[in-house]
Specification:
The chain is of the alpha/beta class and 329 residues long. The protein has 2 domains: 197 residues, Rossmann fold (3-Layer(aba) Sandwich); 98 residues, UDP-galactose 4-epimerase, domain 1 (Alpha-Beta Complex), CATH 3.90.25. Helix content is 37%, strand content 18%. The strands form 4 sheets. The protein has a 7-stranded parallel beta sheet with strand order 3-2-1-4-5-6-11, with helices on both faces. It has a 3-stranded mixed beta sheet with strand order 12-9-14. The protein has a two-stranded parallel sheet with strand order 7-10. Strand 5, helix 5 and strand 6 form a beta-alpha-beta unit. Helix 1 packs across helix 7, helix 4 packs parallel to helix 5 and helix 8 crosses helix 10. The chain starts with a strand and ends in a 7-residue tail after the last helix. 49% of the residues are buried. Bound molecules: uridine-5'-diphosphate. Uridine-5'-diphosphate binds next to helix 6 and strand 8.
Length: 329
């Protein structure tokens, strides 16, 4: 298939490009490089430096490369930032998806795989979270993705043959197993990379955002899915899409780890000391989020295979240690 990957220079997008190439697909990469890193882009692939909000530009790309499927990763993805600057989240994420859908509807492309999030569920009362749990996001990031989901679903009902997959990720973690790709956000706010930076002496300490949550050890519980597992799921879902399909899947490992458990696992594999200090809660963080990933397993046979969090952290540590400047080298 000819696949356009938006956000191809970002964390998950860059790993997805590699999974698509391994699957034998032709890939066109697109990114506005506002947060992505040029160094992640395979030099032999076509790269379009463009914002997805450029509807006519994207339409031209879809036509020029005869794109069959768009995998849409381009988005802002920090919960905390979204609380502080909600409008840029609606503009980039919801507006970006609107623009992309508008371009797709004028093109021949009829498959769409969307990078969604468990943040669309908010603070569900049922745990683990299955796909039928009502979606009441509690932060603008989750809301911006939920609005995108709605537009995608509504377009499917009126665009003949349009097949869609909404993939709701839990916490994506880790690096490529061969060390070829890592993780680099600016600013860095995700727990595992923050731990790595503290262990490398690049930040003074890890602040643990709240230990008074109603969870077994008082810290937030999250479902950490390995990035390679996650992108393999994307390829499997894409390949299984039939005209007119609507597929909605949670992608996680089906169990949660608390922040303290992640820190303990990291202490076990990182050969450098690092300091952890308990701080106040971060706004917008639900106490507990973990998936029920049964649906994607029952329908497609996909399940996460890299579920040992210590191994995921160990791989990340090797990459961070070997690339202290990450993609800025
Ligand atoms: N967290 C933390 N300190 C940090 C970064 C994250 O205590 O410096 C906690 C955060 O409150 C959440 C969990 O780690 O409970 C995972 O956060 P992350 O930002 O990695 O992912 P998110 O859950 O926001 O997608």
């Amino acid at each position: 298939m000819n696949v356009l990957v938006t956000g191809a220079a970002g964390y998950i997008g860059s790993h997805a490009v590699q999974a698509l190439l391994r699957g034998g697909h032709q890939v066109v990469t697109l990114d506005n490089l506002s947060r992505g890193h040029r160094a992640t882009l395979p030099p032999k692939l076509p790269f379009v430096e463009m914002d997805v909000r450029d509807t006519s530009g994207v339409l031209e790309v879809l036509q020029r490369y005869r794109i069959d499927c768009v995998m849409h990763f381009a988005a802002l993805a920090f919960v905390g930032e979204s609380v502080e600057k909600p409008l840029i989240y609606y503009d980039n994420n919801t507006g970006g998806t609107l623009s992309l859908l508008s371009a797709i509807s004028q093109s021949e492309c009829r498959k769409f795989v969307f990078s969604s999030t468990c943040a669309t569920y908010g603070e569900p009362t049922t745990m683990p979270i299955h796909e039928g749990v009502p979606q009441y996001p509690i932060n603008p990031y989750g809301a911006s993705k939920l609005f995108s989901e709605r537009m995608i679903r509504e377009l499917r009902t009126v665009l003949p043959g349009f097949a869609i997959a909404l993939l709701r990720y839990f916490n994506v973690a880790g690096v490529a197993s061969d060390g070829s790709l890592g993780e680099h956000h600016d600013p860095e706010t995700h727990l595992i990379p923050v731990i790595m930076q503290a262990a490398l002496g690049q930040r003074e300490k890890v602040i643990l955002f709240g230990d008074d949550y109603p969870t077994p050890d008082g810290t937030c519980v999250r479902d950490y899915v390995n990035v390679e597992d996650l992108v393999e799921a994307h390829v499997a879902v894409m390949q299984s899409l039939k005209p007119g399909d609507e597929r909605i899947y949670n992608l996680g490992i089906g169990r949660g780890y608390s922040v303290k458990e992640i820190i303990d696992a990291a202490r076990g594999v990182i050969d450098q000391p690092f300091t952890v200090e308990v701080g106040p809660r971060r706004q917008g963080d639900p106490p507990e989020l973990y998936s029920n990933p049964a649906k994607v397993f029952n329908e497609l046979g996909w399940q996460a295979s890299r579920t040992d969090i210590a191994k995921t952290i160990e791989g990340a540590w090797r990459w961070f240690r070997d690339h202290p400047n990450r993609y800025s080298e």
